[in-house]
Specification:
Blueprint (H helix, E strand, L loop, with lengths): L1 H4 L24 H4 L9 E4 L6 H10 L4 E5 L13 H13 L5 E5 L11 H21 L3 E4 L2 E2 L5 H19 L4 E5 L7 E2 L3 H10 L6 E6 H6 L6 H15 L5 E6 L1 E2 L10 E2 L9 H8 L8 E3 L8 H12 L6
Bound molecules: zinc ion (ZN) (2 copies).
């Protein structure tokens, strides 16, 4: 698990001759960049790479995030645009200079289904994962977060086996330089990963386990029937998670409120404190010492600009009672 805890692409390729475009960018100003950075908890958001991967870092900085999640390619296409070396170098350079950011994770494409009973789609999913992991490795991403998969009628046990076999194949091709974090799901349709036991069973069937981790999504676990509202429910749910999967396997937490009720099995995210979970459901995550090193990432709706991200970040930080 050590590799998952390394803090972003810090030890990137050394002396690059790249200079960021634009007049006297902040990350080229030593006076600004060398100011001491206060230790803040690892909280951030998913940011768009529509303007290129480096753009996501700039967006994260604007909301004073310490953690960032990106897609490493267009998430609705099987084949992504080539990621040029030049872009990778700029990305790593800006990351290194924006010292507030300490944790970088990625989310895989929505088309990938490691549980698919269809051999063509399953194979395609494996290849796509290998390709995304390579992009992650180049960018310095700590872990690629992946939905386990949907069995589409083949049954849960068959689906879980299929996922484990896919993960082994992926490992054989891609190695373990980037972790894979299976995300807890709401259990919508035939999606697997809505019970902690299912994640445990997948790990149990994998030959290579050391690089496998978990991403817990607050909206998904709630929709799947795990209550996290208030301290007692939080403790009960996290005890169950720790017993079944292990808190030390957590590579990230997705911080999303839920539009739908407990056990609805429907995945609809909403702003922190404005859904069925409510603010008390996030207090535990923000103050649990076991989770200090785990990046907490918003995937809440975004209106124009960064207003919504700023507001949700503020609400999360406002829940901190432990000193940071
Ligand atoms: Zn999520
Ligand atoms: Zn979701």
């Amino acid at each position: 698990m050590e590799s998952l805890k390394s803090k972003g692409p810090g030890q990137a390729t050394g002396n690059s001759s790249f200079r960021c475009s634009g007049p006297k960018a902040a990350w080229d100003n030593d006076e600004i960049m060398n100011r001491p950075v206060p230790e803040r908890p690892l909280v951030g958001a998913h940011m768009s790479i529509a303007g290129g991967t480096p753009e996501a870092i700039l967006l994260a900085r604007k909301v004073r995030a310490t953690a960032l999640q990106i897609f490493v390619k267009n998430n609705n296409r099987w084949v992504g645009k080539v990621l040029p070396d030049e872009e990778v170098e700029i990305f790593r350079r800006i990351w290194k200079r924006s010292r507030l950011l300490r944790s970088l994770v990625a989310h895989n494409s929505y088309l990938i289904n490691m549980a698919s009973p269809n051999d063509t789609l399953w194979q395609k999913s494996i290849e796509a994962m290998v390709e995304e992991l390579e992009r992650c490795r180049r960018l310095g991403v700590e872990a690629l977060i992946a939905h386990p998969g949907a069995h589409v009628g083949s049954g849960e046990a068959a689906g879980l086996r299929r996922i484990a076999r896919a993960l082994d194949r992926i490992h054989e091709e891609a190695g373990d330089s980037v972790g894979i974090a299976l995300e807890t799901t709401a259990g919508q349709g035939t999606n697997l990963g809505y019970r902690f036991e299912q994640l445990r069973d997948i790990f149990g069937q994998c030959r290579y386990r050391s690089h496998l981790a978990v991403c817990l999504d607050t909206c998904h676990v709630f929709a799947a029937g795990y209550d996290i509202r208030g301290p007692e429910n939080y403790i009960t749910t996290m005890e169950e998670f720790d017993r079944t999967v292990g808190c030390d396997r957590l590579a990230a937490i997705h911080m999303n409120d839920s539009k739908r009720r407990l056990n609805s099995r429907i995945d609809r995210h909403t702003h922190i404190g404005e859904g069925e979970i409510g603010l008390t459901g996030f207090q535990g995550f923000m103050n649990d010492e076991r989770l200090e090193d785990v990046p907490k990432i918003l995937e809440t709706p975004k209106g124009k600009g960064l207003r919504d991200d700023r507001r949700n970040m503020r609400k999360l930080m406002g829940l901190r009672t432990v000193e940071s």
